[in-house]
User: What shape does this take?
Amino acid sequence: MTKERLTHSRMQSFKLCRKKHYYEYEVGIRKETDAKALRMGHAGHEGLDQLKKTNLIDVACQAVKDEYKNCPPEISQYDWEIEEQTVLTLLEMYNWYWHYWSLNEHEPFNVIVSEASFDFPLRNPKTGYAAKNFDRAGKIDGIIKKNGRKLVLEHKFLGEDISHGGSFFERLRLDQQCTNYVDAANSLFDNVDGVLYDLIRKPTIQPTAIPVLDEDGKKIVLDSSGERVYNKDGKTYRQSADKKLGYEIVTRDMTVEEWGLKLAVDIEKRPDFYFQRHEIARLESDIQEFREEVWQIQLDIRSHQRSGNWYKTVNKGSCTYCPFTSLCLNRSQIDKNTQPYDYPEGFVKLEDVHPELG
Assistant: This one.
């Protein structure tokens, strides 16, 4: 009998909401178009993988471009290209920051291996016997050597504060993903001393509208009837808008190249806002606690598989960004026997419920 794989993503899904886990890992359906955050994270990881392997930023950027070759019909070409440029600029400035700008402040590391997959028996921490239905599986972003010590390398693209002492940093101290990867790395690569979290913050700034200029380099301000507005002297053109009077500046969308430059300048001004590295240690007691948790989770999953009862967790944290909220709201009756042509619009069935391991 082929065993199921228990990954960090699957455990997180199960702990967050049983119904979400059911759709993702029992039925095996996902949104046809990945959410923006997932797309950017995946593309960024592909670029970082090539950067680690080759130390060539051009090769890394090409890996990102390959991820953005085909624009989905439901996303505008402009938004797609802006998203692509965002990932490219973050990657280019990451390379500038860690490989050049901050060399005197931060000790570089050597990559031992990049993208290390693991798949081995899930064992009872008390008896050592292997679970009948599940193996442990995952993919580690890398194993590195820094200051003579081996560390797990974990990349994260995030939309929250990544500074030391922030809320994310506090969560890292408890994060079981750290423990999972340290335990796996100990089995694959001898003992490691902890995890180096390599964090990249997504921008809070956005592309802005650019004023259209006339032949003399002056802004074009129009009134509500579409006529150009003069100053009080009747000779020179007005250069500012006024909502009360109905005066608006004619603008155009920022080009992709302009957006890339704007983001690069912002990163150069405050690189610590965008790039941080946090080292997290793990004790043997942490690993033992994790093994006990994983064993209990697989027992709980088996219990739900036998009963068929996959209840919902309904709160802001579980529902706000859940891709399956519409299915719950519409009381969709989808199970393992539902044929793909009966899925709600926008959902597809995956051949492998663990695309992150591919």
